Amino acid sequence: QPLNIADVTKDQRFPWTSENPDHTSNQIKSVLCTPIRNGKKDKVIGVCQLVNKMDESCCSIKAFNRNDEQFLEAFAIFCGLGIQNTQMYETVERAMAKQEVTLEV
């Protein structure tokens, strides 16, 4: 499930933004994160994160909405499938390399 924070400076989960303002905290305002899961959906293998949605009409930062959440969730599914496919391909490549070495001996 996505984590959508409209303003990290007002969120207690980000204490560094109010207690220790630095260059980074001044740049980050809105955050949207969602887990990347493997194809079986039982293991988190990464995270997709979007920062500071821009409002093109007035060049300011605005909050992410439900459409953004749905888009990022769909994107994370494709990322998870791509990572899983790559891992399976690499496993097959290693197995084939071992078989070739065995046949040469």
TrEMBL record:
InterPro entries: GAF, GAF-like_dom_sf. It comes from the Eukaryota. It comes from Nothobranchius pienaari. Residues 1-82 form the GAF domain. Pfam families: GAF. This is Phosphodiesterase 5A, cGMP-specific, b. Residues 15-24 have a biased composition (Polar residues). SUPFAM superfamilies: GAF domain-like. Residues 1-24 are annotated as: Disordered.
